[in-house]
């Protein structure tokens, strides 16, 4: 404590604290290049740094607002689950952690489901919230994926999942790991109904999420620079005692190895998904892109769909 704090009246100190808070609200620092960015400009750019193009993490609301037509979507209820089935406690009770993150994020858990339209096509989207305990997969998240699949099937709509997670939630033990086969069954339900399932891998997508529904998509898109893998690179280096190559487990590296179908800039994600889903759903309608579907009525087999797509940019190769 210095001499200024001893002699400054409480009212003056309060004013200074408010000014510091206002400054924190106005500016944000890019974690990649360190540049200061006006927060309104950053929000307008969907939290992509205008200086180095670094894709920062964003929440479900920002993600869904940018995805759906006119930012209009309807939040879907997720099933309630037992909050603390194992009565787990480490440095803090698990029940108390849940209360804390619910207060911080305003969400029940790490999964938000929204239903809306992308260029007139009805779509169900499930977004993991990394701000809620690192987007970890527990019973609530597993139930969320199953519910999203059920909604998509009921509406005959495609399902798009934005994955962002540190893995399984240790506070729920084996109950968390059980969500891996449960979510796999949910994906199979979509396949049985002939509905597209698209996964967008964001930073980071790791652990049990990568080992289950995040790698079962019909098409896998990824944001630039996203960390994608099962174990983290530091753990792998310590295990194999070798230096990993530059960019290991990043989206671009996995694209080169065939694990990701396309790396898509956040500003182009909506249009890419629109083009892709409209082809997979054989959907025609008014949109920024025009899709012309050939007549297959005289052909003996409908197993292969060939479509001429007229767009201003190249269609993802996985959809051709």
Observed structural traits:
2 domains; 2-enoyl-CoA Hydratase, Chain A, domain 1; 17% strand; 36% helix; 320 residues; alpha/beta; disordered C terminus; seven-stranded mixed β-sheet; globular
Number of strands: 11
Taken as a percent bin, the fraction of beta residues is 15-25%
Which percent range fits the helix content? Answer: 25-40%
Which CATH architecture of the largest domain?
Alpha-Beta Complex
End-to-end Cα distance, whole Å, is: 66 Å
Short synopsis of the structure:
The protein has 320 residues and is of the alpha/beta class. 36% of the residues lie in helices and 17% in strands.
Describe this structure in words.
The structure is a single chain. With 320 residues, this protein is α/β, with parallel strands linked by helices. It contains twelve helices and eleven strands. It has helices at residues 3-7, 10-26, 39-44, 60-67, 94-105, 139-155, 173-177, 179-192, 207-210, 233-240, 251-256, 269-280; strands spanning 27-29, 36-38, 73-76, 111-118, 121-128, 159-165, 197-205, 219-222, 262-263, 290-292, 308-310. The strands form three sheets. It has a seven-stranded mixed sheet, with helices on both faces. α6 runs parallel beside α8. The model is unreliable at 18-23 and 286-320 (pLDDT under 50).
């Amino acid at each position: 404590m210095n001499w200024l704090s001893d002699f400054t009246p409480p009212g003056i100190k309060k004013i200074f604290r408010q000014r510091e808070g206002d400054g924190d609200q106005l500016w944000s620092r890019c974690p990649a290049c360190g540049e200061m960015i006006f927060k309104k400009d950053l929000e307008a750019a969907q939290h992509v740094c205008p200086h180095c193009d670094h894709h920062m993490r964003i929440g479900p609301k920002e993600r869904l607002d940018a995805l759906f037509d006119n930012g209009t979507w309807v939040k879907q209820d997720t099933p309630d689950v037992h909050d603390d089935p194992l009565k787990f406690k480490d440095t803090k009770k698990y029940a108390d952690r849940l209360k804390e993150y619910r207060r911080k994020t305003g969400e029940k858990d790490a999964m938000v489901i929204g239903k809306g339209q992308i260029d007139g096509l009805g779509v169900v989207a499930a977004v993991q919230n990394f701000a809620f305990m690192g987007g970890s997969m527990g019973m609530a998240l597993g139930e969320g994926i199953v519910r999203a699949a059920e909604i998509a099937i009921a509406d005959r709509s495609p399902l798009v999942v934005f994955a962002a997670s540190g893995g399984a939630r240790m506070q729920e033990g084996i109950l968390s790991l059980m969500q891996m086969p449960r979510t796999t069954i949910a994906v199979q339900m979509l396949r049985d109904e002939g509905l597209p399932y698209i996964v967008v891998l964001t930073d980071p997508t790791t652990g049990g999420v990568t080992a289950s529904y995040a790698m079962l998509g019909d098409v896998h898109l990824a944001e630039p620079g996203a960390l994608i893998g099962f174990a983290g690179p530091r753990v792998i280096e310590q295990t194999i005692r070798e230096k990993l190559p530059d960019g290991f487990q990043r989206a671009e590296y996995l694209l080169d190895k065939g694990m990701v179908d396309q790396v898509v800039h956040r500003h182009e994600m909506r249009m890419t998904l629109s083009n892709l889903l409209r082809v997979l759903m054989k959907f025609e309608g008014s949109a920024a892109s025009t899709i012309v579907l050939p007549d297959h009525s005289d052909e003996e087999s409908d197993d292969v769909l060939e479509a001429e797509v007229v767009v201003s940019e190249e269609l993802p190769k996985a959809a051709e």
